């Protein structure tokens, strides 16, 4: 990875998108200690205080728009690989969150540029909660997020970046054929099966228990109304 380090930025994704539009190569990476305008999926803000890790990586893949949900799954696997050293109860939550004891410790946001039926580039933004005094949390996040220091305080930022690069190399291109089949199996094995799972369905939130993931990378949720397939396009904030 070609790493550009910053103390504070508005958003690491925004910086990498600007660099991508100017022709930056694949694996261009921006790392920051804090963000002033961090964001998550579905337009949610991402609490981005100083002391955690915010990183965005530029991907220039020969990938179809229909395969982007798979890429979202693959990037979350790469992040899981970067954080998991067997120190604590980490799980994946569809489509791209990493949980520690049922609380979010990391999340992924994919943005990029598509043109017609072609993906020009994807920016994989990752926010990782490393360490923060719980008293500094906004009230609405209390009990909902976790910090890596709780189970693995010795894992450094530099080591996370090295492990993340290895994870991206392992999973980043595995969105077709046998590699995708193996990655899908890995994701299901590592996934949370929490019966209180809430998933967006385009209208509201569905509550149920995750039971499977389709070959497209969509969630199969067991709800009170039966099995429901929850779709995700995989890419937020795509520009044309």
Brief summary of the model shown:
This protein has helices spanning 12-21, 68-83, 157-171, 177-190, and strands at 2-9, 28-35, 53-59, 90-93, 97-100, 103-115, 118-128, 197-200, 205-213, 219-223, 226-230. Strand 5 (97-100) and strand 6 form a beta hairpin.
Task: Name the average pLDDT.
Answer: 87
| Oligomeric form | single chain
Structural class: alpha+beta
Q: What overall form do the CA principal axes indicate?
A: globular
Per CATH, the class reads Alpha Beta
Q: Tally the structural domains.
A: 1
Distance between the termini: 26 Å
Kindly report the spatial arrangement of strands forming the biggest sheet. 1-2-3-7-6-5-4
The overall strand count is 11
Q: Beta-sheet strand percentage?
A: 25-35%
Helix content: 10-25%
Keywords summarizing the entry:
seven-stranded mixed β-sheet; globular
Task: Outline the structure in words.
Strands 1-2-3-7-6-5-4 form a seven-stranded mixed beta sheet, with helices on both faces. Strands 8-9-10-11 form a four-stranded antiparallel beta sheet, with no helix packed on it. It has a single domain (2-193), classed as Bira Bifunctional Protein, Domain 2 (BirA Bifunctional Protein, domain 2, 2-Layer Sandwich). It is built from four helices and eleven strands. The relative contact order is 0.17. It has 240 residues and is an alpha+beta fold. It has helices at 12-21, 68-83, 157-171, 177-190, and strands at 2-9, 28-35, 53-59, 90-93, 97-100, 103-115, 118-128, 197-200, 205-213, 219-223, 226-230.
